[in-house]
Amino acid sequence: MNKKKHTKPFLRNWIRPIVNPSNLKHIIPKYIKYLRDWKKYSRMEYAEEMSLKNSLPSLFDDRAKTPFDPHYFYQDVWAFKRIFKLGSDSHVDVGSKVSFIGFLTVIKEVLFIDIRPLITNLDNLKSIKGNILSIPFEDNSISSISCLHVAEHIGLGRYGDKLDPLGTKKAAKELVRVLAKDGNLLFSVPIGKPRLCFNGHRIHSTDQILEYFSDLELIELSGVDDSGNYFQNIDKNKLNSCNYGCGFFWFTKR
């Protein structure tokens, strides 16, 4: 019984890049509806010319609720609010989601550091190529910095970086190095039972992360549980009991 429970997720993880198994049982009814709608629409007054060449079947968007990723949705709101309240003139981000970076430029100058530079012509945004394991800044030099849902990937080769089992720990050490005294670091990673899901990401416990940042002072721990619920000032044990939660850590250097 236990073997079957572990086998099914394993198979899904390998098959998912090829085809999404959860969609297979729905695909035929969805296509039937698509073809019916095509026929109905084509016969309506003022209907545009329709052709297979320009067709774009979008079969799974008719949902009762708007879908979203609670990790990224809540983390970005959480971080944006705190960066705004802290009021610094500029901010440095290492590798976070680019939509978050874009919105952040509305309120301040942003320097984005990533091994894959972000090429845009957006005001208030500068992007440079850099590695989180060797951030191109002096010690104690950045007063406001964020690194959201990034460090769990370091050292797994997923984004073209070198393989390194200590990738997350080394990334944390480098963030500590560049953070200025009395500066603020906003950091997030998946939290739950510690494990490696190669080469997607690592999952850490809150205690591991607090150990990695033991030279800093924790101001706030918030996060998202397995059900996608957001909790401000969450108990670390609640996060640790998750399978795939997300912890939002606000640190400062005294």
List the helices and strands and how they pair.
Blueprint: H1 2-15, H2 21-42, H3 70-86, E1 90-94, H4 98-104, E2 109-114, E3 125-129, E4 142-148, H5 167-178, E5 179-191, E6 195-197, E7 201-203, H6 206-212, E8 217-224, E9 230-231, H7 236-240, E10 245-252
Parallel strand pairs: 1-2, 1-4, 2-3, 4-5
Antiparallel strand pairs: 5-10, 6-7, 8-9, 8-10
Protein architecture, described:
With 254 residues, this protein is α/β, with parallel strands linked by helices. It is 33% helix and 24% strand. It has seven helices and ten strands. It has helices spanning 2-15, 21-42, 70-86, 98-104, 167-178, 206-212, 236-240; strands at residues 90-94, 109-114, 125-129, 142-148, 179-191, 195-197, 201-203, 217-224, 230-231, 245-252. The strands form two sheets. It has an eight-stranded mixed beta sheet with strand order 3-2-1-4-5-10-8-9. Strands 6-7 form a two-stranded antiparallel ribbon. A hairpin with a 5-residue loop joins strand 8 (217-224) and strand 9 (230-231). The protein is globular and about 70 Å long. The model is unreliable at 1-5 (pLDDT under 50).
